[in-house]
Amino acid sequence: MTYYVTTLLVYAAVDILACLAISLQFGVSGIVNFSFIIFQAAGAYTAAVLSLPRDTANGGFQTYILGLNLSFPIPWIAATLVGALLAPPIGLVVLRRLRSDYQAIAMLVLSVIASLVVTNTPAFLDGAAGLALVPQPLSDKFNPYSDGYHWAYTAGALVLAVIVFFIVQRIINSPYGRSLRAMRENEVAAKALGKNAVAMKMSVFVVGGAIAGLSGAILVGFITTWAPSTWLYPETLILFAAVIVGGRGNNYGAVLGALLVPVGFEEATRYLPTFGPPGLIPALEWVCIGGLILGFLWFRPRGVLPEQRRVFAARPKPIEATEQYAGRD
Amino acid sequence: MPVETDALAATPAADPQPSAERPLLVASHVSRHFEGVRAVEDVSIDVLPGRITGLIGPNGAGKSTFLAVLAGTLPASSGTIILDGDDVTALPAFRRARRGLVRTFQLPSEFAQLTVIENLLAAAPTNRGDSLRGALLGKRYWRADENRLVEQARDLLDRFRMSAKESDYASSLSGGQKRLVEIMRALMLQPRLLLLDEPMSGVHPSIVGEIADYCESLRDDGLTILMVEHELHMIERMCNPVIVMAQGSVIGQGTMTALRQQREIVDAYLVG
């Protein structure tokens, strides 16, 4: 039971991180990053190959680069950096010249290409089989199979999610967040008002990439395996569905969406009685995810918790003459 | 071939000597082609400081395209654009805006899901919190700038009698109010040259006069405006000089009174 609950909570933390990043990129800034999952995958692979020993260890049953056997937290820090550093090359290709709808298509294609490349180059990250036996953080000092370790890991993951929540909150509630929202509303007008839209998009792309990289590291550190089948492009669509349902541009909405869709909805379907041919229930899950996106875009496009209206404190009222002189005579 | 008039010399006595004025903006031989379509062809104009210059012409004359080229929204196919002595031809729109060359748009371009005051604040150029670093440093780092700019925005809202709408989403405003928001937003940048693209189009007649009043008041404060507009009676009231474009080229310039005497211009545009 402990393992079940902690697994659920770690997934919740990972999905919350992912949804916060997508909310910042898509909800606040209007960037439809359909390649989001490759940033998470890059973080997971980085954390894995930095934690794993050389691929000749464990009987050499898997092949991969590096295998530096570095101790925690270096693999997680590196995963965050790799997620961030992956953003500029992709951003320079996709964000500079393409319109937002073409950006979305280009990112989707990129996601598919990345998956195919990793799958078909086994010497790089063990191809379709993926990486296994990834050492868990601090597993040399603590027993990673103990309940205490699972709870500590869960607490760590949730604390990181909370820290990232406040960082993203700080960005979106700042004047910079306002400029990002202005860019989302009308990029041409924002440029005509002196906003460097490419630099702004790049900055949120980097921040979102870093968060995605961290979320990948947290996940692979817990489940200890990572393969192309875990980061296919539809995974990004689930996260987008979560943000759309929860409320784009609102961090609380992103958290709610993460808990409702990738965690809650997918978990609830586990308890359905089996019916129909094998694979029917997972297929119906996708139908429901698609239905959720369409339904919310149609009936409640701003989500369950819409972006908040920002109201500034009123000017202090000028003191009336009668008040000024009251009691003087 | 542009029809030159001596209308500028014939302007009222109170008008400064145009020949003595250094143009704020000089566009020389500016062209903009779209795959063979010559939307703007070899246009040269001077925009004099402290005036409202009108840019008129029939639909499809290339006025809005020319304005977009001046603002950098569209790159010029050829020609040069000099702003206050500096060549800005190669600069993208956001850099031109930061140098004081700010435009509004023919179609409403408000930031719909931002409130009215946020629309204004989003345009403010000098907020320490308007960068990723500034945002991460927190409210204490940018609060003073924000408070100052909120005051500046509220002063503008007062001036344009839009204070009551401060916290309304811009999407909920009427067409005329959206135009006013766009003008106020541009003013937050403290522009040197304001390019207005049909600020009175699609606006209720009662607000047309109001927009004209505001433009004149801004001019009286020293702001230079280049305005594309079809409301000829307002152009006549506010603008001096007026430039006429047709088929991508300038066909004449001067005061409206003088332009009405030019047969070619009357035939091309000023029917009636």
CATH architecture of the largest domain in chain B: 3-Layer(aba) Sandwich
Q: What is the makeup of the main sheet of chain B?
A: 7 strands, mixed
Annotation field: number of helices of chain A: 13
Count up the domains of chain B.
2
Percent strand of chain A equals: under 5%
What is the β-strand count of chain A? Answer: 0
Summing up helix and strand content along with how strands pair, one would put the structural category of chain B as alpha/beta
Which secondary-structure class do the elements of chain A indicate?
mainly alpha
Name the helix and strand elements of chain A from N-terminus to C-terminus, one letter apiece: HHHHHHHHHHHHH
Integer-rounded radius of gyration of chain B: 19 Å
Uncertain parts of chain A: 321-329
Low-confidence stretches of chain B: 1-18
Morphology call of chain A: globular
**What's the quaternary structure here?**
heterodimer
Assigned CATH class of the largest domain in chain B = Alpha Beta
Strand order, biggest sheet of chain B? 1-11-10-4-9-8-7
